[in-house]
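Each record in this resource describes a single protein on a pair of labelled lines. The shape at a given residue is found from the number at the same position. The record below illustrates this layout:

***
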Amino acid sequence: MSKVSFPPGASRRPSSDAVADVALNKVEGVRSSRFGVRLRTRARGRALVAGSLAGLVLWQVLAVIVGAVTAQGAQIVPPLPTIFTSGVTGLSHFYQGGLGPATTIQGAPDSVGLAALAVGQNGLVTLVRFWAGYLLAVGLGLPAGLLVAGARPVRHAVGGVGGLLRMLPLLAMAPLFTLWFGATGRAAVLFVTFGAFWVVLLATSNAVANLPSHVTDYPRTLGLGPVRLRTRVILPAVLPQLRGALMLAAGTAWACVLASELYGIQSGLGWALNQTLVYSLVDQMIVLALLFAGLSLASLRLVDAVTGHLTRWTE
């Protein structure tokens, strides 16, 4: 049973209010342990490590089973030793030169060093395309959403068009951007911007529409102009609601950058992944997929950290 503390000189007999407060705190503690903690759980590093190890074990078991029942099992589901050896060093073929060592086309053998150069070279290209397209989408989508939300007919019209465009399959749109802008990095950046822009615009417009009227009425009575009203009042007020949308836009941007690099472009992790698909190099395909997942997870964590810092006043 918990004890009630008393200040010096105060009566040792607890008042009825103090006893009620202790009882209430105990009840609230039980409630938070039963419900609040579960609603606010956060991912821990050791849980991620444990999940990854469990996935590796399951993969190895699956590789053994498939290899035992099919003749091509080792090529379809390669075991972990194959993935960590030939799957890694085989990426040396995607090193395009220009950083000192010779390429495999010039006669250099596969090695971990060349594979690291290939991953760094193509991963950097993909990251630049992702961040350029994503930041451009956020920079255009936020002000566009604030402007569109100001007029209900415009909001409904743009919302309908935006919803229709957002429903278009991204993999079907990627070749069109390659045809319109060529097989270049510019086409990839524009396609990423196109995919993420509508998510940010629609989310911003809806968030402004859901704001209570008193949030904007009071600043208006103080003579705040439309620009300062949107930048000083509305944008900070809707930013907590946009946190999830910005994460969703980042995920959409990763899907777009992968789709854009599958068609015609001769650089980037998506291009390398497409080459492994063409030649059925499953071990290298898995390594590239894991790299892609790791980079996308890191960028989503960064977006979450930045938006969490900007909206820390809500916690």
